Structure formats: C-alpha cells, structure tokens
C-alpha cells in the first residue's frame, strides 16, 4: 500500500461518520501509510494512528452531554461553544486517555491542515514539524471562528483547517501519493453555498484579512475540490467513501441517537464497499 493517502474531511459533529468508517478499517487491520486531515478529520485520524479502536466513538458520542464539551455556558463563560480545554486537555489526558506513545511510535505519516490567520493560506504540519505538540496542532485545526479562540503555534496564528483547504487531497498528492482514499462527511450531490459575514464578524477579525478572505472563498474552494475528487475518482485514482443518504446531523449536534446512527452508518457504508476498497488498495 505504498503511495496511497487517506484524506479526512472535517465537519464538526458530522465527523462521527468518519469515526465509524475508521472503526471498520481498524477492525480489518487496514492502515494506510499516509493520513491527512483537517478539524474533526484530524481528531478522528489521530486515534486511528494510535490504534485506539473505540476512542473516537467515546469522544464524539459518550461525552457529548458533558457541560464542558458543548454548551452555551461555555460560550458565555469563555466565548467558545465547544470547550477546547476539555476537548484537548481533560479528555485526552484524563477521561479518555490518548495513547501518545502508540501515536508517536506509529510508522504512518500523519499530517494536520490548519489555516494561517494572517495570510489565509493552508499550512500543513507533518510529524517532523509538530514533534510532541500533536494536540496543539489538532486543536488549532479544530478552532472554528466565533466559537473558539485563535491558537498561536510556531510564530503563526492558526484556526480551523477546513477554512483554507477543507478536503486536502492536493496536499496528499504533493506529498507523493498517486492514489487516495477520501472520506467525506457529506453525501454526493452536496455543494457549499456562499456564507455571508456580518459586521461583528468583520470587526472581530479585522486584524486577520487573510482569514476573512479565506472564509469568503471557502465555498468556491470546497466545490472545486469536490469536482476534482470526483474527476480523479472517474480516472481510478481516488476511492470515495461518503454518506449514502443525506445527513440528519449538522455541524453542531447533541442528540446521541442521531450521532450513534451516523457512526453506525459510517461502519455500514464502508462495509458495503469493502471488496472494491480492498481491490483499490491492492
């Protein structure tokens, strides 16, 4: 399986679909040599690399009703809807321990995409770049405007990787992967509409013109990337795994039943594709 990348889209709570897909791949002992993800994709990808089969389900579903995970109380107290300290400190270090040793010992390359708030460009951190700071770069990649603070790292100011490069297939290709498995968190036929940003948004990020520009272009980049992915799929260079049905889960979801159903949908969807997937990987 040399020169095959695994590309993981973000999508907030919709990332439980990816968690289900990765659960099945881990069951089948399918580990690709190169994984790249943004936001929720990077979160899920890290537990895949550390070989923690049930961790993504626990983190994404079991703790969802914890008040420090996702609540308006967080927003009022800390100006962050998702409790970033809870998600990237309490959970991985205490409640649902992340296997740091397993992660750092793993042979797979794991790349995290972030957005540079000054320039607006996508920055990609590889193992040699983040070294022991994997949680910091994943936190940066998961920090959404308005609901989470900007994360400083390596003299840059960073936010959600899904803004500048929502499905980073071209980076995977640039890193030498001629074939890619892409896990999407939207069903086929979806396209992103332009977003409008009000005066408060413009004022809050006025010092970060690159970030504002990247947000303005986000729908265009997203839709162009999807077109490219499906074009490469037709050529036989890409294997797409995406929800077969339209999702009932939004970016921010607290309903455990809906989240569990989407997680199971991820497992079932990839199970149905298991034979063509194995053929693609061979």
Q: What descriptors fit this protein?
A:
single chain; alpha/beta; eight-stranded mixed β-sheet; 8 strands
Map the helices and strands:
Elements: E1 4-8, H1 15-27, E2 34-38, H2 40-49, H3 55-62, H4 72-78, H5 84-95, H6 100-105, E3 109-116, E4 122-125, H7 127-130, H8 134-141, E5 151-153, E6 156-159, H9 161-164, H10 169-174, E7 179-183, H11 199-204, H12 209-235, E8 238-241, H13 256-272, H14 274-281
Parallel strand pairs: 1-2, 1-7, 2-3, 7-8
Antiparallel strand pairs: 3-4, 3-6, 5-6
Helix pairs in contact: 1-2, 1-3, 1-13, 3-13, 5-8
- Residue stretches low in confidence (pLDDT < 50, at least 5 long) are none
Helix content: 40-55%
pLDDT averaged over residues: 92
As a percent range, the share of strand residues is 5-15%
C-alpha termini separation? 7 Å
The biggest sheet, with number of strands, parallel, antiparallel or mixed sense and barrel status, is: 8 strands, mixed
Strand segment count? 8
Q: Rg, please?
A: 18 Å
Q: Can you tell me the overall shape?
A: globular
What count of helical segments does DSSP give? 14
Which class do the helix and strand fractions yield? alpha/beta
